[in-house]
Amino acid sequence: MAQAWRCAGLRWSADGPVLTWVGGRRSVPARGKRVAFQVAEGGVRTCVGARGHACPVRAGVPGRSTGARCEECARLDRAHSVAADTVADDPRPYRVYLAWFGPGLVKVGITARERGSARLLEQGAVCFTWLGCGPLMAARRTEELLRAALGVPDRIPYAHKRAVRAHLPASEAERVTEIADLHARAVALGGWPEALTPEPFRGVDHAGVFGIGGPGRGPAAVAEVAELVAGGAIGGALVAAAGPDLHLATERGVVVLDTRLMTGWELVSTEGEPCAVPVRELKGAAGVQDGLF
Question: 256 near 31, Cβ under 8 Å?
Fold first, then answer.
């Protein structure tokens, strides 16, 4: 029987995306190379636990959950989280950023300065710019200032990000225009915390890194995996990767796999099996086949 592995998620570094596995194994999904696996027959998706600890009851979790945690472990995981706004005493410096995912999709957020741009890569930000740097609470107040004064959200659903990737402007100059304008409006606001040091506009473009822009851009995605199921398989050449998403060229077209759906399952390597997992059409995708999957 083939060796089964449990996925621990997709991580991003300056060198690109890395799939991590429980036990420390790592694999690098390279563009153009085949990514393929099958969920173990009779398998059950189990909770991944919280904060490095296994779920004490190995609770089952729904296939469509991107968190892969039971209710109790999800509560524990968020109990000490900057992202969940339950931490106020982190002494590290934080940066405020503006991230652009496509036309009309801009958000404000914060990330620890020591992480560099990793947080932006993990979110699938096509472009971003820093706004300022300072203590955590000063960064939080600046984030709230932009939400209140300019109506900039601090969250954008992944479904919206995926839907616009096939319709991005062709040039980097066009892609950074929206955040350049918003940066100028933000720095002109009064009421910035004194502890936050403003940073000049410097647009950073990830379209080439993700494989969703430029001459090497692959075909647009037509569907996304809705969930994995016991015995189900998916495989295809990697044409792009953005945030947690792998864009795979399958026999039915390019399908987006959110790698967060892989966690909690036992997965085995496979080769040429046809794709057999539930999918749904991407809104606005061109050329979607009738009865896809």
Answer: no
Residues 6 or more apart whose Cβ sits within 8 Å of residue 47 = 55, 57, 58, 59, 60, 61, 68, 69, 70, 73, 264
Write down the pTM of the prediction. 0.90
**How many CA atoms, within 13 angstroms, populate the side-chain half-sphere of residue 226?**
9
pLDDT tens digits for the chain (293 residues)? 568 889 999 999 878 899 999 988 999 999 999 999 999 889 899 999 998 889 999 999 999 999 999 999 999 988 766 655 556 678 899 999 999 999 999 999 999 999 999 999 999 999 999 999 999 999 999 999 999 999 999 999 998 999 898 889 989 999 999 999 999 999 999 899 999 999 999 999 999 999 998 766 778 899 999 999 999 999 999 999 999 999 999 988 999 999 999 999 999 988 776 788 999 998 754 433 333 33
Cβ atoms 195, 138 nearer than 8 A = yes
Which residues are CB-contacts of 188 (< 8 A; sequence separation ≥ 6)? none
> What is the gyration radius of the CA atoms in the chain, in angstroms?
20
Closest CA to 205 of 99, 110, 96, 95: 99
Neighbours of 245 (CB within 10 A): 25
* Contact between 155 and 101 (Cβ < 8 Å): no
Residue where the block lists tokens 């039971």? 70
